[in-house]
């Protein structure tokens, strides 16, 4: 229990204090994470030197550093594209082509399709969030709401895509084919997504786009068009962002919006704007590593598994485990890897369908990842939108809906696939 103290401290110092004050900006999130980091180091076991080493190892974890490189490049690309007018022209083109009352639903569908194609929520958020922000500003709509629509759509594809790392880990760890898991998962995710499309269509019914749109400079649309196409083709997100940065500089100088030095200045300002985001990411990584190394995750697992006595409770325990581990690691892939072995043991002990188990692991890890304010997706989106991750949370309808549909499937034992399944080694198994 002691190992979970930093998590409880963060909840109290940030969420509870902000709610009491009635203002989430009263307690800067960077300060909340700094104080939590101090508490996590102070309450950990062992010599101070070892505690600091463990904290630093978590802050410099390879996947976390990869996220930071993406943050840096995304900041440079987004601001240089904005300064040379690329985002404004993409938004004006979109508003002139898509009916205004279909924009919210269309934005969700675009994010869902792109993420389904590229298998990553972060890449989708990087590509679409600046466009969503531009649309919100032009139409005087809520920036956090449109940004949250992109986040929701991005998790649809992250949950279902055949090339998503969460799909790969969930299926391989449970010994099922991706196609089997997809057919099981789509029965949960598709109804949730269709409900969101209907809600967004209703919310955008009275939305009015400006009629006096300026003429579109199609050359300035090229950088974003190339970025979207490259992302949809599955090009590595770092390469996509580098390509976008080069194109914004070239097009900006051709159009007379930039010289080399003003382009450099725009990139520098964009990178500086990601500074708070990078600090939060590294502090969170260090804190979560100390929670893990001090046995916090093992403690949670023992407590949850002590109450398992039926198939329904077994499935609920797997859902709870992967959700809580994601809460403690802020990485849905790591959460699945951590829980996968225990989930398979539970599956075999209670004769669970491994397709359902793979679907539960992927769905609930994505649900939790789409809701935590210190996850890479919300941090990235908030950094681009220049708002707090907490500002996005009230508008994250899809992750909540996905989680509710998945919970209903477990509680009412719905979404049970056909009997015969085929494992990756082509052996038929009857459940």
What report would you give on this structure?
- The protein has helices spanning 5-21, 29-43, 48-59, 62-83, 86-97, 103-118, 121-139, 143-160, 165-174, 178-203, 218-232, 237-254, 260-272, 275-293, 296-305, 311-329, 332-349, 354-369, 376-385, 389-392, 397-411, and strands spanning 420-422, 428-430.
- The chain is an all-alpha fold and 431 residues long.
- A two-stranded antiparallel ribbon has the order 1-2.
- Helix 6 (103-118) packs antiparallel against helix 7 (121-139) and helix 8 runs antiparallel to helix 19.
- It is globular and about 65 Å long.
- It starts with a helix and ends with a strand.
What features would you highlight for this structure?
mainly alpha, two-stranded antiparallel ribbon, disordered C terminus
Task: Give the integer mean of the pLDDT values.
Answer: 83
**Cα end-to-end separation:** 38 Å
Spans of at least 5 consecutive residues with low confidence? 417-431
Q: What is the beta-strand fraction?
A: under 5%
Number of DSSP strand runs = 2
Helix content: over 70%
Shape: globular
Using the CA coordinates, give the radius of gyration: 22 Å
Please summarize what this structure is.
The protein is 75% helix and 1% strand. The protein has helices at residues 5-21, 29-43, 48-59, 62-83, 86-97, 103-118, 121-139, 143-160, 165-174, 178-203, 218-232, 237-254, 260-272, 275-293, 296-305, 311-329, 332-349, 354-369, 376-385, 389-392, 397-411; strands at residues 420-422, 428-430. Helix 2 runs parallel beside helix 14, helix 5 crosses helix 7 and helix 8 (143-160) runs antiparallel to helix 10 (178-203).
